[in-house]
Amino acid sequence: MLVFILVYVFLPETESSSEEEEIETVSIDFLDVNPSIADSIIPKMEDEELVFQHILWRIPADSNYNLKDLKGGGFIFDGNQEFIESSIQTLDSANLIRPYYFVNPNRQFLESSLALDQELLNSESKKVQKKYRNLLVRSLARTDITGYIFNYNNAAFELDSKALIEEQPKLFETYMEILDTSRASNSLFAFHLGNDFLADSSFFKKNLSKIAKRGIPFILLNEEILASDTDLRKIGEGFKFNGLFGVESKNTKNITELVQKGADLIVIDYHPETYKQLLSELNLGSIEKDKFSYSIKRNLLAKTWMRNGFLKEDFDSIPDSLQNPISNRIIKNLQYDLARNSGILINNKVFGINNIKKGFDIYATDKFSRFQRTINQYSGFHPVGFKYTDIKLIQSIAKANKKSILILDKIQLDTCKSDLIDAINQAVQNKNVITVLVGNPSNILRMKEAKNLIYLSHFMDKNQYILAKQICGVLSFEGNLAFYHKEFGENPGTKISRSRMGRAKPEEVGINPDTLAQIDYLVRRALSGRAFPGCQVLVAKDGQIIYDKNFGYQTYRREHKISDKDVYDIASLTKVVATTMVAMKLYELKAYKLQDSLYRYLPEDTLKLHLRRRKSSIRNIRFDEILVHKSGLPAGAPIIQYLKYVDRQKEIGRYDKYYCDEKDDTIFCVEIANGYYLDGSYLDSMWLKMNSLYIDKSKAYKYSDVNMNLLYRMFKSIIAKKNLVRTPRKANYDVFTRFLDSCFYRPLEMRRTTYLPRMRYDTLDIVPTEDDKWWRKQLLRGYVHDPNAALYGGIAGNAGIFSNKTDLAKLFQMLLDGGTFEGKRYLQKETVDLFTQSYGESHRGLGFNKQSASKKTFGISPLAPSSLFGHTGFTGTCAWADPDNGIIMIFLSNRVHPKVNKRIYKFGVRKNIHNIIYKALMD
């Protein structure tokens, strides 16, 4: 990101701009160093040492040169972090006077020889800026690196001068903060101006002098722009620059000449033969020691300044977060962040309306295999190879009805023949065509009329991967074109949010995969301890699934391994996955108000006949009180009589007081378990008892299944009265379930989420829960474990839903995305925020459980923020969503198999998995 800032810093003021703001001059720090050390060293230096102290050797990354005895004033490393650290270790012992160690950050962090400055230029993400800056500071703190060399020249950005200088410097003060950071780290930032140094005098007069006043320490330029009479020191005085001058040279014979022209350092590409040649060609007799001594002293002052204030063990002033070693994971994460910002959507007529799932025709001169493979994961494609000479094929694209991607790479449109330009212009004006311009940015000006235009400076492997996911809606478009603002406006870069879930490597979204892998060990340890026979675990970050695994078996008999299609009884997760979702939708439809009391919605006429003119005890409870469990209702309903009853024959008979072993549609119509049916009239009895419950007038917080079952009954009544679903053909079809399915489950394609799973799925796909020896006398497979929900026939507000990890991830991602998923809105963002935030004086949300102020909420990591929302389930389940970090965790198990036990608590499985996720976050 620093390069991005540097571009703006160097941009000149236009003729129409206001008068330049007066800037206080900041001196270059190393020039204020006590010169005693330098003065004592210089007289002792041999002529050869004087020469070598001026040389910066550039060490190529792809070399295997022995650097052990290499002498020089400094070194520039053109390689990655590992190469830099190993090289410094070798060179440290070869030079008595500490060398400069400069690094090209593109190669260190981006691991590419390409000029990626344009990617940094187009990235306006504050998050990326911070990561990039932190990496710079951390690298300075952990190694002997002297500083960084940033390219600032037309070639680096592949732009002409007009594109670079037409805008005002907008981020000058932000750059000054970074400059102050480098100064505090006692490091030298070098700016490579290349051949552009003297190309435009007004450019440097107005802008280079502006930043020179703030203490820029080092400027690097190319030898070929220097005339025979050039005096760099006089040029520097012209714009008040008194830092170091470096000159790149390909000729080892003219080192002394360059020093005499004012060069403090000469950059030479290292090769063993070049080194030998330099030793043999040194003309020590021609050295003017006065000029050599002047530049040597400036170098020694700089090195003294760095040595005094930049020792590796001196970390007192460096934040702990920056002292950790720079791992490849952190660097990879930055690379993916940059790639996400490098694809700029300039024109848009197709994205963000409907997801593109039917596939693409991809027209390209190369195969771009990573791009095609990634497209195929989410959509599908048909590759069409072509050459720019194939005018007829390009003309046919203009008539394409299918969504197509036209990749224009390695082309300079300004020099193309008119018939090719006409054919391309016709093709890109087809609204079904997505045009991807790669490389030369001047081509953008030719593509103004393109309906869907994406620009990338490079199309390397990561860029192909990221762009494919962006086109398929799996990642958002975030980049912004940093130039051509006059042609495209102040913000040429359409922001399109991600609309679909995808899959990614953990490091792509800032998660350390090594730390995340500890989940495997934790779960397998719990499996060995018989905490549960099997489980499903899913972790998503920023809409990308980064951990998705099944462990163990359905039972301890180890007959059926857990698979993706298996569904679990999610127990009290039903409270948020079903009941709260209906509550949110009905609230949006204005079917009730949170502060409404229940008496407005109770079927009083029916109740009066049975309550003997007594009013319902629950009539004055409000909906919001129920949702936050402050209703005053008891924790459980009075159902013990149904559970303890045993018939005279000690087994279920043909007919019984409550149950029958065969279904009767008129009487014994509530299926409790296999061959176990409840008399339907008792549903009315339980409803009447609910209306006669004692209400605690203090209405203190008490977690209650009764609350959610009361809401289920109320919402069912509201849905029916307001005709919010079509009248079902089957008289006994539950309108609550129908409403839930139509509003959420079906459109979200949650095909493995339902009440009464035995009606929809193969029984072997349903993970069994308890082997009930006490009440239902059977293994519960597909019958809800919770007795309250069982007495309702498996459809209730507190439990009853069966689901799997993938379906639950979709639902919670929809909530994290503010109520949208795959381009469709399910809930308004305001509704999601209202229900998922802490409500009133409660730590809970409306229906959702949350992190409490004490940070000891069951099943939640203490590292999780207060914005977290979700729920747990008695059968060994949980789902948590974190809006602050974009994290989703789903854990499903049948820990109550074969009987209820507490071993899952002993191992702390849910909380510890959650904790691992937060520890895996990379800064």
Structure explained in plain terms:
There is one protein chain. The protein is an alpha/beta fold and 923 residues long. The strands form seven sheets. It has an eight-stranded parallel β-barrel with strand order 1-2-3-4-5-6-7-8. A seven-stranded mixed β-sheet has the order 15-17-16-30-29-28-27, sandwiched between helices. Helix 1 (2-10) crosses helix 10 (172-184) and helix 18 (369-378) runs parallel beside helix 21 (461-471). The longest helix is centred in the N-terminal third of the chain and has 21 residues, at 289-309. It is elongated, with a radius of gyration of 35 Å. Residues 1-20, 167-171 and 308-319 have low confidence and may be disordered.
Short description:
By secondary structure, this protein is an alpha/beta fold. It has 36 helices and 30 strands.
- What are the low-pLDDT stretches, counting only 5+ consecutive residues below 50? 1-20, 167-171, 308-319
Question: Helix segment count?
Answer: 36
Number of strands: 30
Question: If you average the pLDDT, what whole number results?
Answer: 84
State the separation between the terminal residues, measured CA to CA: 16 Å
Strand arrangement, largest sheet? 1-2-3-4-5-6-7-8
